[in-house]
Amino acid sequence: MDAPLDGIKNSTKNSTENGARLISRKTALLAALAAGVAVPAALMSAPALARTTATPVLTPACDDGDDPTPAQTEGPYFKPNSPERTSLVSPGTPGTRLTVTGYVFGLSCLPVGRVLLDFWQADVNGAYDNTGFGFRGHQYTTAQGAFTLTTIVPGLYPGRTRHLHVKVQAPGRPILTTQLYFPNEPRNNTDTIFDPRLLMTVRDAGRAKEAAFDFVLNVPQGPGPTTTPSTSGSPTPTTAPGGTWAAGTTYAAGAHVTYDGRGYTCLQGHQAQQGWEPPAVPALWRAE
Questions:
Q1: Helix, strand, coil shares of the chain as percentages rounded to 5?
Q2: Cα–Cα distance between 219 and 171 in angstroms, integer?
């Protein structure tokens, strides 16, 4: 798959400043993250820079144009309580294999860790599994804000172009519900929901396909990397005021807790952590 230097983004905007191609802070961050090296301190405080596919070099500040990823309709087929997994296929699953990779950034082009992504899509015949959890699954970004999804290219059904559904939520922040699209699809021109800002970068990889997309969430960020609660080690349970919910506890779907005098039902199995209190994460908890 192309390295993150190839300008993966949630839109097709490639900026040019005074006729010269410049490099964005996000692009340099992607390169550092992909290489597994420390991110230069200058990237954590400098303004965002225009994006290009050139070798990362710090340049004078300019606007990267990184608006938050656009929201789209949930549609009629979302189901809560999807299993936590990064692969939606098994060896015998029909369809063209598709691997989607990317990062989740905040408003200052810094990666956000422990972001919840819940994917769902149609099968190769264009049908959704509404009785089980076929082609449904949720996962969390790494500490570096990265995610990987293994699935198939979804089939077509009347009225829509090819697309993937996803809900994205940073700890303690609102849910972004949106859809991802494939370039050069004939139905992109007739689908009234289609938004070109949500096009993935897609390439052939033998008989499979590889796609990439970066989400930009409405998460304010100051200088320095965004910090999120850690799940490593053995967290110390912390009881919420006036409730039974406790950080460090592993909850199964259907579990009941109280928090600040109100009851909640767990929608997806997970380990509780600070910043993911029930009122803050409707993707994980439903108020009773």
A1: 10, 25, 65
A2: 10
Classify the phi-psi angles of 18: left when phi > 0, otherwise alpha if psi is within -120 to 50, otherwise beta: left
Q: What is the pLDDT of residues 152-163, one digit of tens each?
A: 999 999 999 999
On whether the pTM is more than 0.70, the answer is no
Percentage of the residues of the chain whose pLDDT score is greater than 70: 69
How far apart CA 76 and CA 67 sit, in angstroms, is 27
Q: What is the mean pLDDT of residues 207-227?
A: 81
Q: Which helix (H) or strand (E) holds 25?
A: helix 25-35
Q: Which residue has the higher pLDDT, 79 or 235?
A: 79
- Tally DSSP H helices, then E strands, for the chain: 1, 16
Question: What does the pLDDT average to over 149-175?
Answer: 96
Strand partners, 262: 259
Give the closest residue to 165 by CA, choosing from 285, 72, 68: 72
Closest listed residue to residue 97, CA positions, set 89, 106, 105 = 89
CA distance 219 to 264: 25
* Sequential DSSP letters for 41-61: GGGGTSPP----SS-----S-
